[in-house]
User: Fold these one by one.
Assistant:
Number 1:
Amino acid sequence: MKNLKTLLALGLFTFGAVNAAPVLTDSGSLTIEGTIDTVVAITVTPTDATPLDGTYSGLDLNTAATNLTVANVQEESNSESGYTVTVEYDGLMLHTDGVTTFPYSLSYDGSAITTGSDIVTNDASGSVIDTTKTLGVTYTAADATNLSGTYTGTVDVTIDAI
């Protein structure tokens, strides 16, 4: 009987050893990658009630204006190195006669802009930006020395990724 118990124990041990074969495993890995395009966009929207093709036509040159908001400028950027916004203008509105001018100055979000080309935003944060700023105009009232008629000026607003 003792031999039978030994044989049974040996059999169970052997059976267990046979079924306890080493577990084989394998693995693999995958790296996924994608890109997001850089977006830099600028939208200039006149603030008068009836904008016509990007024109603010509501200036009353007979009445002085100080920092009168003529447009909202939406700056959008996701550039990882940041972006700049430049405003360019010559400070003179030209009469329809092509000769007579009317002087004015601009501000961007309340800060004065020099004539020529002026960087008004220099954001190197590398953050995602979607903000709206104002473009304002300042001029003195026309007087008897100014020729009557329509005067126009062009303001260029440019956004660039850094």
Note: DSSP finds one helix and eleven strands in the chain.
Number 2:
Amino acid sequence: MTVDAGTQQERGAGRVWTVRLDPYGRPSTGTVRLSCSRPACPDQRFTDGAAAARKAAVAHVNLHLAHIRAGGGPRGEAWCACRAADCAWHTPDPAVGARGSTRPTAEPGTTRCGGPVALTVYADRAGRLWRIAEMCRTVRGRHR
């Protein structure tokens, strides 16, 4: 069987951008490092404390959001981004779905991906981690 180029569209996992704040150097200096999962984004260091670093992290997330929106927003052909993490974002057992293992068909308490993919921003309560992801409706509901 042959398939002509361009006649079949392959779905890929949703994209994920992660912005993180971590202490840098000696704790007594109070220096904070802002890092981004995108290779084009260099690490930044803030010596004036966590508040300035948080403000810069939010600005960095907004910069990525503006770039994604300018590029047409989330890709409609993408799968939910949790698939890139072996669905660990919404399965109760982190070992379930590990690469190479057989995924159970229907365990109680396991949420399946479902619904249209949209752009979602998740921030942890401590203000140290932000994740921008193309997620389905089901997984987005688990991160509210």
Note: Strands lie at 16-23, 32-36, 44-46, 117-123, 129-136.
Number 3:
Amino acid sequence: MQISVNSTIRRLNSRTREAIRRSLQDTLERLSSRISRVTVSVIDENGPRGGVDKVCRVNLVMEGFGGVTATGKSEQVMVAVAEAARRARRKVRDKLKRRIDRRQRVRTRPAELAAAAVADADADADADADAGL
């Protein structure tokens, strides 16, 4: 999993960038085999005016699954990064779970249809027997 950090905030030094990388690595560690690339963008929406304006956008590329984007916003950079990382992890898990659920539905569907057809035939036979046919 490759992680690149981009920022428009000038005071974002190399230590902070490394802390951002570690935070994302720790949060996404269990899913890292599925993720090929992570791009993190940190911007200051209001500039020097302050306030809740640090925005972290995490873009993930997953082979065979497409991309995932998550955003976090806070007054502090690392809080925004942690929020975006948690949201990204949740989205990746949901995407993987949906794919697994879809596979299971496709596998079980023919068997379920066959079972339903047998049940319908049995019900029709019971109805015919009750009607005296």
Note: The chain has a mean pLDDT of 80.
